[in-house]
Amino acid sequence: MTLRKGEKMTISIQEHMAIDVCPGPIQPIKQISDYFPRFPRGLPPTAAPAISRTGSLHFSTSQPSSLTPSETQREDEDIDRVFGAMAAPSKKEEEPEVEGYDSDDSTTLGTLDFSLLYDQENNALHCTINKAKVPKPRYRKGLKPMDHNGLADPYVKLHLLPGASKANKLRTKTLRNTLNPAWNETLTYYGITDEDMVRKTLRISVCDEDKFRHNEFIGETRIPLKKLKPNQTKNFNICLEKQLPIDKTEDKSLEERGRIMISLKYSSQKAGLLIGIVRCAHLAAMDANGFSDPYVKTYLKPDVDKKSKHKTAVKKKTLNPEFNEEFFYEIKHCDLTKKTLEVTVWDYDIGKSNDFIGGVTLGINAKGERLKHWFDCLKNKDKKIERWHTLTNELPGSVLSD
Predict the structure, then answer these.
(1) Is 219 contained in some domain?
(2) Which residue has the higher pLDDT, 92 or 357?
(3) Are residues 182 and 295 located together in one domain of the fold?
(4) Listed range (35-39, 202-206, 325-329) with the worst mean pLDDT
(5) Residues 214 and 190 in one domain
(6) Can you tell me the mean pLDDT for 40-62?
């Protein structure tokens, strides 16, 4: 294109203006000519564009610069940054939208909605597992697919720490072929004391059930029970985490074998001690099927005539048996200060020796809650007093076998 003398160069509107075609109102952007300026007439060929500290373009000649080396370096960096931004693709071009999981590990395993309630009067911890939420695929925070069909067969498993895993493990039903399960199921731990609420932690794991191989771990969360207030329901909606290690150095003497609820009552009318074996909770599993066949025995020692033994019925395939049986010992009230009550829980086996699960001793030589329970019985005649006690794995001294 040739210009006549005295005629100014014209630039088309397409060159001056670009239109943002993204959805929304049409907005003009900077003139293209701002990015590709034309050299004014009379400018020496050696002139080069530069950027001032204010961000505007200006032109410098080949004459020596009065800037210091550090200032020159900063201006060079400004030039690289501006022209590099023009050459770089937009964020939308660089990061195409792909359906998948967030890169953040704390959200890819899923979120779990549940609530906890500590019933202080009944020494029970109620755990209501509601559902696992799955948002839109782009922001996937639901359960991670574990099966070839892109789905999972999820269930939830509870475990109180510290404690033997088989002794206090509870689980929900399994829901098939879903990444958005809704269990709406309540699992209950019985025999939970105020002391447990201070020192124990509830571990909640979500797993995928597999019929032909080992079940797969999806994610877990842990809630210190001291966060709960008695008789107040607390709701949680938490991102699942990767599997956390369990302290293997935990003292084995603290490993719990389960809990037992015992009632004591001295009857003035019958002149004797009435002992109730109410129920047991989260007993240790002694059989290969993951259960036990528990029953309970009681002895009132010293037992010179060896007639103090009483035994409950056997409950098949359970770790949470309910017995509701009572045994009577004819004895003077004053003699109870010299007696010790031994209660042991056993797993019944056919054709071989029965397995010892755990035991507890009440009486004048006991300590803590066991001693307090005994004295409360002696102080309150004709009143039934129930208490939960933790079973220990130590066999009482005089009870060597079934």
Answers:
(1) yes
(2) 357
(3) no
(4) 35-39
(5) yes
(6) 49
The CATH number of whichever domain residue 324 belongs to comes to: 2.60.40.150
Which whole number is the average pLDDT over 44-61?
A: 48
Of 31 and 47, the one with more pLDDT: 31
Residue 117 is assigned to a structural domain of this protein: yes
Does 277 reside within a domain? yes
Q: What is the pLDDT of residues 144-181, one digit of tens each?
A: 665 566 788 899 999 888 876 566 778 999 999 888 89
Is the same domain home to 241 and 269? no
Whether 172 and 214 share a structural domain: yes
Calculate mean pLDDT across residues 224-232: 94
- What are the beta bridge partners of residue 126? 117, 188
Residue 13 has pLDDT above 70, yes or no: no
Out of 247, 279, 307, pick the residue that ends a domain. 247
The answer on 267 and 164 residing in a single domain is no
Domain contains 160 = yes
State whether 345 and 234 are in the same domain.
Answer: no
Q: Could you give the strand order of the β-sheet that contains 322-330, starting from the edge strand earlier in sequence?
A: 322-330, 272-281, 259-267, 385-390
Name the domain count of the chain: 2
Stretch 327-339: mean pLDDT, rounded?
A: 93
Residue-wise pLDDT for 383-399, tens only, equals: 999 999 988 877 765 44
